[in-house]
Design goal:
globular; mainly alpha; single chain; 5 helices
Length: about 120
């Protein structure tokens, strides 16, 4: 159980860091300058990673990876656009959050391999 909690926290946290770094480097996002905004998005991204064990328990194979990345990227993009008022267009925002979904999903599967 402890290993699962650590895997979820690391997946959400490191995926978020990759999301923020990509956003500030390539898309000109200023998220790294606002600590309050940064912590709120980190919390939402980490809470989204809580869905990973459920997805991988219910679904199998490649479909589970696709669903988890789409859910994490879509949820983070919608939260960024609607809750945080990010003014990026949808395509760069979804690209940025897809990196979060990819990193979070991959890291989770490395730490918690399938049985």
């Amino acid at each position: 159980m402890f290993r699962l909690i650590i895997a979820i926290a690391l997946a959400g946290g490191l995926g978020s860091v990759a999301d923020f770094a990509l956003g500030s480097e390539f898309f000109g996002s200023d998220i790294l300058s606002d600590n309050d905004h940064l912590l709120k998005r980190l919390g939402i991204n980490m809470s989204g990673a809580v869905a990973l064990p459920v997805i991988f328990f219910i679904l199998r194979g490649l479909f589970s990876y696709i669903v988890s990345m789409a859910l994490l990227a879509g949820g983070a993009a919608v939260a960024a656009k609607l809750y945080f008022g990010v003014e990026q267009d949808w395509v760069p925002l979804l690209t940025q959050t897809l990196v979060y979904g990819l990193i979070a999903t991959t890291l989770y599967r490395v730490l918690i391999p399938s049985r």
